[in-house]
Structure prediction request, 198 residues.
Amino acid sequence: MIPRGFPPRRPKIRENVNEAIRAREVRAVFPDGSVEIMPTPAAVRKAQDMGLDLILIAPTAEPPVAKAMDYGQWQYENKKKQHEAKKKQHVIQVKEIKFRPNTDDHDYDFKKNHAIRFLQEGNRVKAVVQFRGREIAHVDLGKKLLLRFAADLAQVGSIEGQPRLEGRNAHVLLSPIKSAVPAKEKPQTRPQAQEPQA
Prediction:
């Protein structure tokens, strides 16, 4: 039952399929490999006689190219292509590493190694020094710590601007250096020992 005041739902029309194709004529491609330029209604009829749908695959071509195939199979192949493309792309993330102004050397080294790994994986690193209570009086210690951190990671990451103070936190951003992202190493060939001449 449709509630009062709402328009009735329109049936969902599949775009660029069968009767929804607006071009006057199409270059129709059929499963047997035959290609014909024909009026769209005739091409749709021919595809339906084969038990298939006519799908517009190149709407900008002149005339537009339409292929006779199963709509469900076409949807499945499209989703598969999109999934493959998504798998190949690398999303750059910002990884956050937190310090305190009085972080000891062991903790510092541990977090530094994490940051090196993140940068080598191609991600950005945001180093944050958190100030609590009276520690805010020692902002200079936090900024020194961030500059030391950036200097220690200079081989794998480049600093984006100077350390900034926002509220009770100071932070700095580091971006990966392209050459620091490890590529596959080539196997080394050993030099052959020369035989002594007689």
Remarks:
- Confidence is low (pLDDT under 50) at residues 183-189.
